[in-house]
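Need AraC family transcriptional regulator's 3D structure for a figure. Predict it.
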Amino acid sequence: MLHSHLTTLNAVSLILNTFKAEGLSSEALLAGSGIVAADLQRADTRITTHQEMQVCTNAVALKRDIGLELGRRMHVSCYGMLGYALLTCATFGDALRLAIRYPALLGTLFELSVEDAGEQVWFVAADYRESPAMAVFNAEFCLVSLKVICDDLLGHPLPLRATRFEHAAPDYRDSYADPFDSPLHFSAKDNAFAFDRHWLDQPLPLADAITHQAMAERCRKQNLEFTGRQAWLGRIRQLLGAQLNAAPGLEGLAQQMKCSPRTLRRHLKDMGSSYQELLDELRFERAKQMLCEDQLPIYRIAETLGFSETASFRHAFVRWSGVAPSQFRPH
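Structure prediction for AraC family transcriptional regulator:
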């Protein structure tokens, strides 16, 4: 199941703008995500990575190599306060270390690190634990966007020595040549690119100690907000996920969370969600898992997920996925 962390709408807005030029409506890309047009007008809207990944899944279904294109558009200014904190760092190495410190603000689904390799260093994105079906997209999106950040920080392209990916070479591998002007290696141990060590000491052209101090402090506070909300949301998902066969309802869940139903409803709304959306999300993830891994008849799966009638489960699954449970199940 997806780990549901909080993030901003940056990537979602980027996807919508990318496809807008091709005349595709936002409704098709937002389908199943629980994100509505009004959310896009609020700068402080927070969504879960599950919601973000649903939009990405819709995008990949329309264009398989969209991860590369989206990554090229993720300039450092897309990261809000973190972007300005990075730009105002004293050196390139300082900026990379700051980015790694705040993965929640960077919105990455990987563990980032800078690994020593003698005269070269590797900027590594590893330990991916999200949807396997989206692993290639996320690796492409992550590594291209990291390269774009590096270029933006320096004010010119960072020369690469080599680039490697965990996945096998796709049939559109030629598209990798532009963002990664270096020898490419696929089916590797992780996703990473290498550059000469001396770049870590390179002074940044927009360095400003006073502005950096102010932005870094705001990043620290925002990170506390993100991680605090993530822990709270994680507890809700844990409680609800353990009771899918007899969901407690908003009032029951609020009692378990030791808060009022009104407070629970408000907090969920602030995170762009609701009790029913969370319940549907957890039921859908569990249903997909059971349909793929278990041999239980569909009526038993419906019972396990708390549906009183098999027909109700079928209708819900069609709404979530676009196909009936029997069609989703591998044959």
